[in-house]
Amino acid sequence: MAKFNKLPSLSKSPTSWYQEVVVRAQLAEHAPVKGCMVMLPYGNAIWENIKSSLNALIEEHGAENVCFPLLIPYSYLSREKEHVEGFSPEIAVVTHAGGEELSEPLVVRPTSETIIHESMKRWITSYRDLPLRINQWANVMRWEKHPRLFLRTSEFFWQEGHTAHATEEEALAEVSEMTNIYHDYCENYLAVPTLMGRKSEKEKFAGAVESYSIEGLMPDGRALQMGTIHYLGTNFSEMADVCFVNENNEKCYTQMTSWGVSTRLIGAIIMVHGDDKGLKIPPRIAPVQLQFIAVNQDEAVIKCCEQLAADMKKSGLRAKADLRDVRLGVKYNDSELRGIPMCIAIGSKEIESDSVELKLRDGIVRSCKLSELTDKVVYTELNAYHNRLLESANAQLTRMVRKVETADELKQAILDGEMAEMAWCNETDCELQIKEATGASSRNMPLDEIILGDKCTCAWCGKKARKYAFFARAY
Amino acid sequence: MAKFNKLPSLSKSPTSWYQEVVVRAQLAEHAPVKGCMVMLPYGNAIWENIKSSLNALIEEHGAENVCFPLLIPYSYLSREKEHVEGFSPEIAVVTHAGGEELSEPLVVRPTSETIIHESMKRWITSYRDLPLRINQWANVMRWEKHPRLFLRTSEFFWQEGHTAHATEEEALAEVSEMTNIYHDYCENYLAVPTLMGRKSEKEKFAGAVESYSIEGLMPDGRALQMGTIHYLGTNFSEMADVCFVNENNEKCYTQMTSWGVSTRLIGAIIMVHGDDKGLKIPPRIAPVQLQFIAVNQDEAVIKCCEQLAADMKKSGLRAKADLRDVRLGVKYNDSELRGIPMCIAIGSKEIESDSVELKLRDGIVRSCKLSELTDKVVYTELNAYHNRLLESANAQLTRMVRKVETADELKQAILDGEMAEMAWCNETDCELQIKEATGASSRNMPLDEIILGDKCTCAWCGKKARKYAFFARAY
């Protein structure tokens, strides 16, 4: 399993640390096709847990799951001008199938708006059919020249929600709800705080009227876009002719939204919580929440570990027992590397004295009578651990966002590996200049309507400020 | 929802019945890309239920889930000569990506042996690494000229298991176990009996040493291959160099297997259980197991339906309430069309008299006090219903398999829309002749080693018989 040499230092060489920890903890590996990844059992199990927990919230929100096809006619993509321009450089194209050259090339979906709207056109006739909310868990393809496992891969896995509404107000309410659902999900399940806000013109989704995002901040000061929510207005419905008859018997175009999160979330978990010993997988989505470690190979010890793991499993906990005949240190190292939230070592001493130690991955240790070790005790400690992870991630985020008022302060903040929060003119020219000078892009603009004084000016260009915005280098 | 005109008759025009019921019950629809399908919420929910119930058995069997990439280098596919020849006519090829022509074309996976073995080569070094069992739930693409929803689509959804073993015996045991797991799964969850057996040379998987299958028999007399299990021997491991060092420190090639079932299973459910009123979804995988039907719009009736559905849901049952303000007949028709296992109508009369009727989709009706309606009562009836579905499907299968001893009898059986069971020479020439003359292919050869007498001859060609075999036209 794990190798014995130490991981690279997270603070000194975050990039090598990341690459090493993903491989050593057996989350994923690079596939032979450039830019694609193989999700290994442990990484895949994290994704499965994210899927099932987030899916419950999406269903509760009123979206039904569907499966749309992988391939989209190129002509669909090109209906919306910005959409096709935005995605063209990234698409993979099927030109031959069934032994013949196709009369029209097919695109491996980079996202499914166009093909889903084609169906919605047939499904929607009246205002009574609205709102319509569907969602799919799927693989998508966006050709990637500089791949990084989970963060940027040519093929990635995601969910994409697509909704149609009668009015702009309803569509905007949908966007706001989903932004909040994603934000809360990341806090409640991944222990990762995010910044909610609107994207700039330059950074918005190709074809959207407005895009919103939740942005995480990684320990190296780079932002990670962890989820996006797009208000499409009637841009797509006009092109695909998705309309409905309203209560006054008038034909109207539907108002549309789309929203998604991807396997990138796993990248966020790795970076936000990890340390020099390895991963810290948040307990609510951890494939193994609790590991019993057999201190030796005594029959009573092995039996006790097996029994405890079986009992905990029955209570719904994801528990395992490490019964291998290897040094105790190796077992602890493996458990730390893989970021298992809680470890309980069981030896003859523990059995005789009826006393065990619950070791949480962040170093906290609780004592408990072996005979009083119940799932409830474990859940309580796992919940407390989740809260500590979130608290520490929150503190990190707060520490790393710096308010800046001048161009020099912005430059310095980015140089120092931090995120800048500033009054901004919200103009693309200004954003391009900032990118050129600092490498930072606008991440998003907070949702709270902060009233900017008349004299408030853009920290970079000095023009009238329109919005507060977060700037950072980004993954 | 449902239209009012009747479905075509299942016995008189099974093809139109099938097409109509899939669309009207909103299981799936044809996608704009030829041969591909859109799985609608109801059809997708059936597939989700199949996935989760079968996945538990696959995990119990010892396989871990992974995700391999969608695209496979063409050169991998061509390593195994039979494999590439078998799949070439069906593959979809990506020739351009990221705005450039690729130096090597990539194939949208028709199956993943070659790319998975490439990883296994790195994962396996010693006999201690064996057996290795992995599984993935994925979309695959096999270009289809004559698509039928669920039965034959260019893109379909499946699970594919891939295993590596030290010895032939272990690999053959794996094949036998998985064949049994699939067979039992179909009986226990889908209420569909299948015939287990070995495929002929002509019908085996491209590149396998031996293939096995479970075959269902549809009411029109055509067989449906519902799952396949392949013994690959060292055919693939020699080409991909997947080897291990055995206990005597000798280098050996791994023995491999692969196995899969797909969204075709939904096609089997539709055909095996359906009737002129619509679907009969087996209760263990039904998206809605129990529908409460509000007989009128009285507040007490609506409240009672909502409360009952909520209570049943809490007990883990998939229950819903149909509260629409439409005629009662419409609600019953919809429920029958969609094949909901159990319906309970609630009106003022039922509430006052404390008495309800549990209507099962096969026409059986049970009475029960409303105050005594618990999840246990429902589960008992649903289990009994499952058993009746299976019994009836078993009777149909038995009725439609005809033992034949001569070529004329074989021809007649196929003409009569039945499946023939016969002593067979097991030679490809003979199989080709039978196909030419009757349209039937060999489905499989039963696993039980039946000793064929020396004088036993092939029902078709008169040569010495080697095996019993099932012949039928097939989907």
Low-confidence residue ranges of chain A: none
Kindly provide the name of the CATH class of the largest domain in chain A: Alpha Beta
Number of helices of chain A: 14
Q: Which sequence of strands runs across the widest sheet of chain A?
A: 3-7-8-14-11-10-9-22-23-21-20
Tell me roughly what share of residues is in helical segments of chain A: 25-40%
Question: Rg of chain A to the nearest angstrom?
Answer: 25 Å
In brief:
The first copy, chain A, has 475 residues and is an alpha+beta fold.
Describe the structure.
The structure is a homodimer of 475-residue chains. With 475 residues, chain A is α+β, with helices and mostly antiparallel strands. Chain A has three domains: 14-273, Bira Bifunctional Protein, Domain 2 (BirA Bifunctional Protein, domain 2), CATH 3.30.930; 288-383, Rossmann fold; 401-472, Translation Initiation Factor IF3, CATH 3.30.110. Helix content of chain A is 36%, strand content 27%. Chain A has helices at 14-24, 41-60, 74-77, 81-87, 113-123, 168-190, 235-240, 264-273, 299-314, 328-337, 348-353, 375-400, 407-415, 428-438, and strands at residues 28-30, 37-39, 64-65, 71-73, 92-97, 100-108, 132-141, 155-165, 195-198, 210-217, 223-233, 243-245, 251-253, 255-262, 290-294, 319-322, 342-346, 356-360, 365-368, 401-403, 419-424, 441-446, 467-472. In chain A, the strands form five sheets. In chain A, strands 3-7-8-14-11-10-9-22-23-21-20 form an eleven-stranded mixed beta sheet, with helices on both faces. A five-stranded mixed beta sheet of chain A has the order 16-15-17-18-19, with helices on both faces. In chain A, strand 10 and strand 11 (223-233) form a beta hairpin. Chain A is globular. At the A-B interface, strand 2, helix 2, strand 3, strand 4 and strand 5 of A face strand 2, helix 2, strand 3, strand 4 and strand 5 of B.
